Give the backbone structure.
Amino acid sequence: MSEKPIKGEKRVFLTGNEVVAWAAVAAEADIMFGYPITPQNEIMHYWTRMAPRFNKRFLQTEDEISAGFTTNGGVLAGLKAFTATAGPGNTLMQEPISMAEMMRLPVVTIVQQRGGPSSATVIYSQQEVTLTTHGGNGEGMRVVYSTASHQELYDYTIKAFNTAWKYRFPTFVLGDGYQAKMREPLTIYDPEERGIEVVPSYKFIGGAGKPGVDRPPVQLRNIYNMEEELLEVLEEQFAEFGKISPDVAECEYFGCEDAEIVVTAHGVVARGAKSAVKELREHGLKVGYFRPITLRPLAVKELRDIFSKAKKVLVAESANGQLDQLLKYAAYGLTTEMVSLFKPGVGINSEDIYDKVKTMLEN
Amino acid sequence: MIKPSMPKSWRVDTKPHKFCPGCGHGLVLKALGQAIDELDIQDRVVFGCDIGCSLLAWDFFNVDTVQTHHGRTNPVMTGIKRANPDLICIGYMGDGGGYAIGSQHLVNAATRNEKITVILVNNAQYGMTGGQMAPTTLPGMKTETTPYGRDVDSTGYPCQGPEMVAAITREGAYVARATVVKPVPLKNYIKKAIQNQMEGNGFSFVECLSACPTNWRTNNVETINFVENEMTKYYHVGEIKVPPPKEPLKVKTWTKIPAMEVQKNG
């Protein structure tokens, strides 16, 4: 038995990538498969440094396609396997994720968004929202947590493993280059001491007994002969995803009851939105704040309730409307005006949002 | 009525199998079934099949099976083996999956000497998609994308897969090329390739020369002739790399010559 990585609670000052590695260890992840790409590299660096101490394993593969498929293999064999990627790597990762979707494999992927399209920048963006929520040649049967702070990177990486193994849908933690590289104070902890159940893993294949004699063989496929066969599989997935969505969907909001303008943002931009809204409130202005934490599934009920009461919704994101698209789809039928503050691949701070809201109020 | 003999590890309820009449897959999978039976490893095998005609083997055996994506069987088998080294991972793919779309995975699994067994069926073209040129298509051979015959000046020469794998693997790897027209060595090479994984020596790879009468548009005689006489012009059948013996090979010397032998020789 390896030593318990974190006993009790500990106040630390870490980079986001280091936080993810610690969280994966705390979530009792067993094996990581990865391929270098900035800005996620240090997740592998810290994981490999901790690996011998905590009896963890790692394989550096030939590309992200292989990293994803070896992760699928690790999960099939019954281990909590995960990978991390970004940008063009996330593009390649969508192929193995689509297999995980089809077979309902609890694969965990950490994405630290960088600029796009193509190789773009290694720094930061929120341009992998569409890819991460709806990538692959499928229907987006996955859970995506968008984190805003290092504390959340820790909390939600642990939660991602639990969600994946509880519900059997591929699960993502969607961070970004800022969160990856920044250093911030946070509290790391043993989840069980906080009453968080660590969901155990189990074998999909290679169980006890002789197949065909003691038990039927486990035979997993991703290709079907007939249209109806596929539809049956998909409809079961949609039903299951729909059933779990209210339990999985998360959001946070304040000041929306009487708000004329609701500022909506996700991830690190939501931090700027939050402080801007607080400041505007201090000046007596009727402005609210809404942040989806899960981008898939969205907290549709809260979103529609809040948006329907506001006169205007300001959507701020470091992409050209990828979050906006998800929100508008969820808000279909509402007549609230949607205003945008898009800076694809560029950071948005509280001043940007504060100024934009002021202009909106003046007009 | 005499029933055809099937390996014990086959799933009888999914037979007759789904391959075309005259296809080589049935012979390779029979050899694999016999090897699994002889080694008595049905409860430890994980069979991974690729996309292409090999996908039709997804319910072929009474062993746990994962159908992967086109070219991605090697990384899935690698992940399973790394996660649970007690399992015996056998990847099954065609020449397109191994040498074209999944070549980076084959090269890197071989370079890392992954303790998995790969069986690659070479039928010189893409069967499932309707007979296009593969990396293994022979010079001059007509396919749907080389209707006037493969022109080596513009499309290159046939891929020498086992030779490449032999060149990039470390000691301990097992590499062979078998042919469906010689079922006994076919089974023996596959068996050795599985044993090599079980002994933890290294990457194990068997390419099997096979037939696709449907896309070749050949009759029985022409099909066998193509495998036996045309394919072997480029593909030499036999063991290409075997792990060195763990102990020195012992030579047996006679201390006493049997009287009969002396008489016969004298």
About this structure: The interface with chain A takes residues 9, 11, 42-44, 46, 51, 55, 58-59, 61-69, 72, 75-84, 86-87, 104-105, 107-108 of chain B (CB under 8 Å). The mean pLDDT of chain B is 95. Chain B is about 35% helix and 15% strand.
